[in-house]
Amino acid sequence: MAPLLVLLLLLSGLLVSGLLLRQHFGRATLHRVIVEADTPAGKAFDLLLLIAISASVFAVILESDSRVALSHPHLFEGLEWGFTLLFGLEYVLRLLCTSQPLRYATSFFGVVDLIAILPSFLGLMLAGTKFFLVVRILRLLRVFRILKLGEYLQESELLWRAIVASRRKILVFLMTMVLLVVIIGALMYLIEGESGGFVSIPVGIYWAVVTVTTVGYGDVAPVTPLGRFVASIVMLLGYSIIAVPTGILTVGIQQARRRQEPVRRCPSCGKGGHQGDARFCHQCGNGL
User: Fold this and answer.
1) Which of 92, 198, 205, 271 could staple 185 via S-S, CB 3.0–4.6 A?
2) SS (H, E, C) 230-283
3) How far apart are CA 269 and CA 188, in angstroms?
4) Residues with Cβ within 8 Å of residue 216, at least 6 apart in sequence
5) Given this model, what pLDDT does residue 187 score?
6) pLDDT at position 226 over 90
7) DSSP 8-state symbol, 32
8) H helical segments located in 64-166
9) Rama region for 270: left / alpha / beta (φ>0; ψ in -120 to 50; rest)
10) Cα separations in angstroms, 194 against 12, 201, 220, 223
């Protein structure tokens, strides 16, 4: 059977299945189960979906080992198509039960859902030895399914708001780090030179990045006493720098969390801004 015909049959089957399910259960019921996450049915659906996503990603990880893939070729092929059809049906149902399908399709998670199922369908059109490498690259996109997990993390929005609120501080920190590693790299090039392995300033910058981030590959290392003294200072500096982005994000998360908390107002004077554990108004003294 021609690959194009198989593709059309699969897509038609998903669409017909979605329409039949919507007709049987009703659009409101499907919306409550698939889209809404605060209902018992929605929570159960999300839990099952999380299990399916985790299993599909685990299968992709196992298939990347050639020994495991060759020993169970049909198993992984069957799992891949099973997960593809499952997530494809979920994608179709989300489009059919939402009031604004175009908005969902163009949203971040809508695009991720589409990317999660595209490689298998595109593999039908690109089948053959000539396009094997292209198909392998497309199949690696299946790992994007793991991004669907972010939709169900309760703190993801809070973390994103903290990053956005702290973007200028983070940008200043990164700019400072770039200037620092350039200066350190140039300094080590002057101290060590080609005899010490620092054949150019870019090599010195590479060593500075590796050292400041406390990775320490060891492929380039200073040999002179002065170079080792400077390297020791850079290593200690790297440990102290780790606390900077951590502190920036911590403050940003606390500020974002305070913005999410409801404003507690005094019932007597109407003064707001009370802490979550406050029992009395800090203006009039009456109980909250």
Assistant:
1) 205
2) HHHHHHHHHHHHCHHHHHHHHHHHHHHHHHHCCCCCCCCCCCCCCCCCCCECCC
3) 64
4) 210
5) 93
6) yes
7) I
8) 66-71, 73-97, 101-106, 108-125, 132-140, 156-165
9) left
10) 65, 10, 11, 11
**Which of 226, 179, 239 is closest to 198 using CA atoms?**
226
Note the pTM of the prediction, 2 decimals.
Answer: 0.59
| pLDDT attached to residue 166 | 83
Position 82 pLDDT exceeds 80: yes
- Could you tell me which residues come within 8 angstroms of residue 211 by beta carbon, excluding any fewer than 6 positions away? 184, 231, 234, 235, 238
Other CB atoms within 10 Å distance of the CB of residue 183: 13
Average pLDDT over residues 170-186: 91
- Tell me how far apart the alpha carbons of residues 286 and 265 are, in angstroms, rounded to a whole number: 11
Quick one: DSSP state of residue 98? S
Q: What is the pLDDT of residue 129?
A: 42
> What would you measure as the largest C-alpha separation in the chain, in angstroms?
81
Cα–Cα nearest to 212, from 257, 245, 252, 164 = 245
pLDDT at position 219 over 50? yes
257, pLDDT greater than 80: no
- Alpha-carbon distance 214 to 2, whole Å? 55
- Alpha-carbon gap, residue 34 to 29, rounded angstroms: 9
pLDDT of residue 130: 44
Token readout for 27 is 């659009």
CA 186 – CA 73 distance, rounded (Å): 53
How buried is 22 (Cβ within 10 angstroms: 0-12 exposed, 13-18 middle, 19+ buried)? middle
How many Cβ atoms sit within 10 Å of the Cβ of residue 143?
A: 16
